[in-house]
Amino acid sequence: MAYIDLYEIGRSPQFSITGREEITENLDLTANPAATSGILKGTVSSGGTTISNATVKVFDINDNPIAHTNTGGNGQYSISDIPVGSCKVTAIAPGYLLPLTIPVTIQLNKTTTANIELTADPDANLSVIYGIIRNTNGEVPIQDATVLLYSETLPEPILISTGTTNSTGQYILNLVPDGDYHLVVSKLGFFLSQTATINVTTSEIINSDVSLVPDADANTGTVSGFIKDLSTGLPISNAAVALYSIAGGVESIIATTKTGITGRYLFANINPGTYLVKSTKQEEVS
To answer: Which of the listed residues 72, 98, 120 is the one where a domain comes to its end?
Structure first.
């Protein structure tokens, strides 16, 4: 007959007796997890070949993680102290795809076997190119820059992959096969930039940061709108519109225009700065 500890061994603090003391030491025992749990074991393999150092992960039925371990040289694993009841198990290893979880039922003080079959990842030998696109002025990350990956093939380079930077200027290009490549990075308001050759071999993770130079002539904005009669809401054509720049609290007119028949006006090629618009309309009186 086999026995199991229902509680973990309790331990009192140290105490001394120097004479005729009456010592009381009460202990609160903690339930032994092994007393209400079982063991899960099995083998991780692929196509009949066992896989060492695969990570085996156990989840409860709500996909909350319970425990994990790694397989040994023979692809076998064993995890003890798993709570009794239903759970799930899966495994992952470099070069293999993550399979679906396997449902298992853990029984009290018993061993449950769950063998896991992995499938080789057909893209395992492909590489990743990643990096950050920055402005040369202050090295500030640039959002929504376009990153194009070209293979350096003759007679013409071939577009392989396209990416866009996020709010922190980051991009990532996956599934890049072996070969020689270069990046072409662009963003409105900046000069286009092309990197030197990037040599890619099997299963590499390559960092390639790029800095873009602002194009002062292209880095301009527009100001447009409608001029209307407040009381009628009707557009005012041929209204005079002035664009003021504001520097040090001083307003200076830098451009003027007139509205069209729909009351619309438009200023183009406006450099970075602070501005305001004023408008009025005059007519000849007899």
So the answer is: 120
CATH of the domain at 228: 2.60.40.1120
Quick one: tokens of 30? Answer: 């903690």
The residues, ordered by sequence, that sit 6+ positions from 215 with a Cβ below 8 Å of its Cβ are: 189, 190, 191
User: Which class for 270: exposed (0-12), middle (13-18), buried (19 or more C-beta within 10 A)?
Assistant: middle
Give the model's pLDDT for residue 271.
87
pLDDT of residue 5: 66
Show Cβ contacts of residue 50 under 8 Å, excluding neighbours closer than 6 positions.
Answer: 43, 44, 71, 74, 75, 76
The label of the residue with tokens 């309309």 reads: 281
Q: How far apart are CA 136 and CA 141, in angstroms?
A: 9
Domain end point (choices 87, 120, 153) = 120
Rg (CA), the chain: 36
In this prediction the pTM is 0.66
The pLDDT value given to residue 37: 86
